[in-house]
Write a structure and sequence with these properties.
With 66 residues, the chain is an all-alpha fold. Helices cover 52% and strands 0% of the residues. The chain is built from 2 helices and no strands. The radius of gyration is 42 Å and the shape is rod-shaped.
Amino acid sequence: MKKFALAAALAATASTAFAGGIAPVVIEPEVIVQEAPATSMAGWLIPLIIVGVIIAVASSTSDENV
């Protein structure tokens, strides 16, 4: 009976101690979210307006006083 109790105790402790071995370390990749840069026409709009004004002023000169 002592052998049976000793065998049962060893079996109970051995099964829980070695039941899966060492689990591998799972490292989840870090998710990086980048927002797309906002495109605006303001960077091109002001120079286009200035060029348009210069062209309008240059083309509106009258030759009446010549």
